[in-house]
Amino acid sequence: MPNENESAQANVEWIQQQIQERSLGIMTDMLKGLADGKRMQIAQALALTPELSVHSIAEIIESSIATASHHLRYMHKLGLTKFRKEGRTVYYSLDDEHVRQVVELVVSHQAEIKERQENEA
């Protein structure tokens, strides 16, 4: 019968294997894509509505269309957003429900932290 140390070591090795088998670089890049204030505003806006034009997004984040486009292209490259064109207008949306859930979880968690801190004060 394996002793406790052998069992713990086997567990550590299994966890290491699971972590290495996943695409850590892709996951961390996706989270870095949300680690910018403007990009998080964009993600929040897109979590609230099915899609928005680049022009609307620029207004929401109070930036130029060029800046909004830059952020949106970066987010698209990371798999956070998708787009469609209608004439000369480009509309963006979150890539899928998983991205929406991540954004909603971050927003919800932040609200819980804020409430906890207010209660501790």
TrEMBL record:
Transcription found in the keyword field: yes
Gene3D superfamilies: Winged helix-like DNA-binding domain superfamily/Winged helix DNA-binding domain
Superkingdom to which the source organism belongs: Bacteria
Coiled-coil region list: none
Keyword Nucleus: no
Keywords: DNA-binding, Transcription, Transcription regulation
Record domain HTH arsR-type: where: 19-114
Any one Gene Ontology molecular-function term assigned to this protein's record: DNA-binding transcription factor activity
PROSITE patterns: HTH_ARSR_2
Pfam families according to UniProt: HTH_5
SMART domains to which the protein is assigned, alphabetical: HTH_ARSR
NCBIfam families for the chain: HTH_metalloreg (NF033788)
Protein name, UniProt field: Transcriptional regulator
Taxonomy of the source species: Bacteria, Bacillati, Bacillota, Bacilli, Bacillales
Name of the gene encoding the protein in the UniProt record: cadC
